Amino acid sequence: MNKFKYITLLGFSSLLLAACGESSDVTVESVSSNSATSTAEEVSSEAESSEETSAPGKRSNPVSIGESATWDVLYSDADYNPLEGTVTTTISNIIRGEEAINQLMEANEFNEAAPEGYEWVIFDMSLVLDEGSEDDPFNTSTILITPISSDGSEVSQSTYATFEDGTAFGWKDLYKGGNDSGKVGLIIPEGDETLIEISDMNTSVFYKLK
C-alpha cells in the first residue's frame, strides 16, 4: 500500500464521506501547447457516450505520456469546512529497471533493489492547483499514487524510494496557482503494463507508464 495512504487526516476523511461521492469529470490534453492536435485531443466525460471509448483517465482509457489530466478536488480549511479546487497533473521522464535502481543508489546508497520478479520505476510528477483558496492550502500529501498491475491488482510496496532532499513529490502546501513537482519511485512487476492511479479519494485518474 502506498505510504501516502497512511497520512490522511480524520477530519479530511470525514469531509469526503460527507460529500456527494460523485467523481469529477476529467479533461485530458497534450502537454505541448504548440501541438496542432491539442484541441482535438482535449476531451471530457462526454466520451462516456461512446460505446467504444470510456471516459478519459479511466483504467480502460488511461492518460498517455505527454498528456496532462485536469479534474476537480475537494479539500478543507483548518476547521474542516469544505473547499473546492481544480488540479492538473502530469507524469514525465519515466525510467524503469536497471537505470532506475542505478539512479536510486546515486540518490541514496540505502535504497534497496526491487524483489525478484519486480523492478523500480521512477517518474517526475507535477501537480498545479489551477483553482483553489487564496488563504487555505491544499496539501499534496492528500494525493494517493498507486501502481495497478495489468491483472488489476494494486502492487504492494515492500520498500520506498528515497531521493535527494527537496526532489521528491508531495507534502507541499499549495494555494491557487501553486505547483508541486518532484520524483516518485515505485516497485512494479518486471516488464508489466502497470498503470499509475492518481487519486484525491474522490476522483481517480490512471496514467500509462509506456
UniProtKB/TrEMBL annotation:
The keyword Ribonucleoprotein does not apply. Residues 31-42 have a biased composition (Low complexity). Keywords: Signal. Gene3D superfamilies: 2.60.40.1240. The keyword Signal applies. Residues 31-63 are annotated as: Disordered. Residues 1-18 form the signal peptide. This is DUF4352 domain-containing protein.
